[in-house]
Design brief:
The protein has one helix and seven strands; from the N terminus they run αβββββββ. Strands 6-5-3-2-7 form a five-stranded antiparallel β-sheet, covered by helices on one side. Strands 1-4 form a two-stranded antiparallel ribbon. β5 and β6 form a beta hairpin.
Length: about 90
């Protein structure tokens, strides 16, 4: 299983060059969730995330399953993560 630090390195190589990785991390449904923002700190609308599978390291853009059908419904099994100072 991948650590959060390993997942961050994977996703950094996949985000568009005009975006940076927001330092806000989460996991849900067996994947790490990441947000990429532009230089003004804006994120694209729509609720999508860059995800990294915790088992196989597959990285892709997707929309995690929500608790119910609504644009801003909570993400199912969402858990906010903190990157320990030791891992940085």
């Amino acid at each position: 299983m991948l650590s959060l630090k390993e997942a961050i390195e994977i996703v950094k190589g996949k985000i568009p060059k005009d975006r940076t990785l927001r330092k806000s991390y989460a996991e849900a449904q067996g994947k790490y969730l990441f947000v990429a923002e532009n230089s003004q700190g804006m994120i694209p609308p729509g609720g999508g995330f860059f995800t990294v599978d915790k088992e196989n390291g597959e990285c892709k853009w997707e929309y995690p399953e929500r608790e119910f059908l609504a644009p801003y419904a909570p993400i199912k099994d969402y858990k906010k993560l903190e990157l320990d100072e030791v891992e940085q």
